[in-house]
Design goal:
Oligomer: heterodimer
Structural class of chain B: alpha/beta
CATH architecture of one domain in chain B: 3-Layer(aba) Sandwich
Strand content of chain A: 15-25%
Number of helices of chain A: 10
Order of helices and strands of chain A: EEEHEEHEHHHEHEHEEHHHE
Largest interface: A-B, 39 and 46 residues
Distance between the termini of chain B: 37 Å
CATH superfamily of one domain in chain A: P-loop containing nucleotide triphosphate hydrolases
Structural class of chain A: alpha/beta
CATH class of one domain in chain A: Alpha Beta
Chain lengths: 318, 333
């Protein structure tokens, strides 16, 4: 097993929100107590519903924001503001919407060369050009695409351009924030295959943020299931999907429609809504919607425990 | 008699570069209490064909059809006033983007009550009660409070539920749902799909579900129509479609699903959907088809019989799903 490239211990990100002129600011606990390791060539999925903190986690790992608690290490170095500049080139992100994440006024050549212009100012123009063309070929686009504008491409091709741009600085880690959810089904598989190939060829580590469980199941080695800013279940993806132990994971898996007609599965129906992250919930955050809830769950919060396949639950499913 | 019957629907848009055919020769039949799923990629004309039924296309669109009837009355022959009495009441639609489909200037309560006033003529009190009841049905917490809220004050998922409440407000006979759950989380998606199926049980509502999620199709639909580049390429009962697809496009679409994958690299469909300028002369899928033969390049295929899934294909797949029958050279001309 190779060296860990990202280690996170008890990462937290809380925001203060002003509530009005006289009242004290409230705290939004977007992310609390997230720990994980990521090795080169490994894919870690973060799943959960909207508002569970998965995008906040992406922002911390890409150093867009600073964690308010816990420790994050990338390539063995502690991530603090003074190290941001040197570490940022090794972590790159691919965004969800390929239509919104490419500048419509720039040619593909400019888009691809921009990271080099900023981060490698000494590089000659020819060298930049050569590298940009090389990356364009790497993601399966043709040389004649090099001087075109983003509007001339389909969604799948744009996502390829986004991936090429993310690869320009030869990063070790790619954060993929729902990279295929905006694409058509037949294009999704093309992009997934590209990501698999790139990982095999370049040994990239992926932090894969998604809400599509069937993709995660197919594509990822390990999975973190989050609920309201906290990890509820974490482990190797095979095990978590085959044997989900936290009731929320179970509900999430059962709610995901499967392409098997007439299977007659019983969906677990969750009652109610995700509580607001501003409310301080004593006890397990999932307790108000859980069907296995006991008094203990309402009083104190279960900690993540259980080693490689960890769960945060007092009454796990068998 | 079918509730909704559309024969040979074609929709063309006038663009600065000439006519663009978004829908070509599509048939839709919908019976009472039936769930029809329409699947296809973006640009396959699935939304446009349903908007044509609703009469909501802009003036640039030319709609031609042999027949477009609701409960036996042809929608194109009745007056616009009469049509407005049907649209929104008997045929309702859930639109794709809740954020841009709701009016930002009015509270959601006002918008939902408007339909109740226009179509059902309820008094103020009854409208209010019905609106609360609808909000409860679609799972909006604290409905009384939410009625006085503007769309921008709520999340996308909440707005989507408002849209759904609006569409089912008048107990429609036909509900067209255009990607009703795409913006929602899976647990909410399951709630909404269950609600729609429940309404069907209770009121005998027919449901036309436009989606690209094969999982949703498999779990909710009874009949599935697969659209590609404006044409319906296959139509089958749901079990048949998933078990034995006839059109190579359907088969390729199913094979590309990650949950059906056998290896880490997924089977893909090469290329992209043809656009306005690169429409092939023969079969529209031929450039991406693994089984295309000479005849596919030159001659557009006609839909086959019901026993072959109405597949628009010269060489439908054989039961093993891998090979095709030899193309039958037509002797005509």
């Amino acid at each position: 097993m190779s060296e860990q490239i990202v280690t996170a211990r008890n990462l937290a990100r809380h925001y203060e929100v002003k509530q009005g002129f006289l009242s004290a600011p409230a705290t939004v606990r977007a992310l609390s107590d997230v720990s994980f390791d990521l090795r080169p060539g490994q894919t870690l999925a973060v799943v959960g519903e909207s508002g569970c903190g998965k995008s906040t986690l992406a922002r911390l790992v890409t150093m867009i924001e600073e964690p308010t608690g816990g420790e994050l290490r990338i390539k063995g170095e502690a991530v603090t503001r003074d190290h941001w500049a040197s570490l940022r080139s090794s972590v790159q992100i691919v965004f969800q919407d390929p239509y919104g994440s490419l500048n419509p006024r720039q040619r593909i050549s400019t888009i691809l060369q921009e990271p080099l212009k900023i981060n490698r100012p000494d590089m000659s123009a020819e060298e930049r050009d050569r590298l940009a063309r090389e990356k364009l070929a790497l993601v399966g686009l043709r040389p004649e695409h090099y001087d075109r504008f983003p509007h001339m491409f389909s969604g799948g091709q744009r996502q390829r351009i986004s991936i090429a741009r993310a690869l320009m600085l030869d990063p070790a880690i790619l954060v993929l924030d729902e990279p295929i959810s905006a694409l058509d089904v037949s294009i999704q598989s093309q992009i997934l295959n590209l990501l698999v190939e790139l990982q095999e060829r370049l040994g990239l580590a992926y932090l894969f943020i998604s809400h599509d469980l069937s993709v995660v199941r197919h594509f990822c080695d390990d999975v973190i299931v989050m609920y309201l800013g906290r990890v509820v279940e974490q482990g190797p993806s095979k095990e978590v999907f085959a044997n989900p132990r936290h009731p929320y994971t179970k509900a999430l898996i059962s709610a995901t429609p499967r392409a098997v007609p007439g299977s007659g599965r019983k969906r677990i129906k969750l009652q109610g809504e995700l509580p607001s992250p501003m409310d301080l919930i004593e006890g397990c955050p999932f307790a108000p919607r859980c069907w296995r809830v006991t008094d203990q769950c309402r009083k104190s919060r279960p900690e993540l425990s259980g080693g490689a396949h960890g769960i945060a639950c007092y009454n796990p499913e068998d | 008699m079918s509730l909704l019957e559309v024969r040979n629907l074609t929709v063309e848009f006038a663009t600065s570069a000439g006519q663009f055919r978004a829908v070509e020769g599509v048939d839709v039949t919908l019976d009472k209490g039936e769930v029809l799923a329409i699947v296809g990629e973006s640009g396959s004309g699935k939304s446009v064909s349903m908007l044509a039924v609703m009469g909501l296309l802009p003036w640039t669109a030319t709609i031609t059809a042999d027949r477009m009837a609701f409960e036996g009355r042809d929608l194109r022959e009745i007056t616009p006033a009469e049509r407005r009495k049907i649209i929104g009441k008997d045929i309702a639609m859930i639109f794709q983007e809740p954020m841009s489909s709701l009016n930002p200037c009015f509270t959601v309560g006002f918008q939902i009550k408007e339909a109740l006033r226009q179509h059902l003529g309820l008094d103020r009190k009854a409208r209010h009660n019905r609106a609360i009841e609808l909000f409860e049905q679609v799972g909006i917490p604290a409905p009384e409070k939410r009625l006085n809220v503007f769309p921008h004050q709520m999340s996308g998922g909440m707005n989507q539920r408002v849209m759904i409440a609006m569409a089912i407000a008048c107990n429609p006979k036909v509900l067209i749902a255009d990607e009703p759950t795409t913006a929602l989380d899976v647990t909410i998606q399951a709630q909404i799909l269950d609600l729609l199926l429940e309404l069907r049980e209770k009121n005998g509502m027919a449901l036309a579900l436009i989606t690209h999620d094969m999982g949703v199709v498999a779990e909710t639909a009874e009949r599935v129509a697969v659209h590609y580049a404006g044409q319906k390429v296959e139509e089958q009962p749901v079990a048949g479609l998933f078990g034995r697809p006839y059109h190579p496009y359907t088969a390729a679409l199913l094979a590309a699903l990650p949950e059906r994958a056998t290896s880490r690299i997924l089977p893909t469909i090469p290329g992209v959907v043809p656009g306005q300028f690169d429409r092939p002369a023969g079969c529209l899928f031929a450039p991406r088809c693994a089984h295309a033969s000479a005849i596919c390049q030159t001659r557009p295929p006609l839909p086959r019989g019901a026993d072959e899934g109405h597949a628009r294909c010269h060489t439908p797949l054989l039961p093993d799903g891998k090979t095709v029958a030899a193309p039958i050279e037509e002797v005509s001309q």
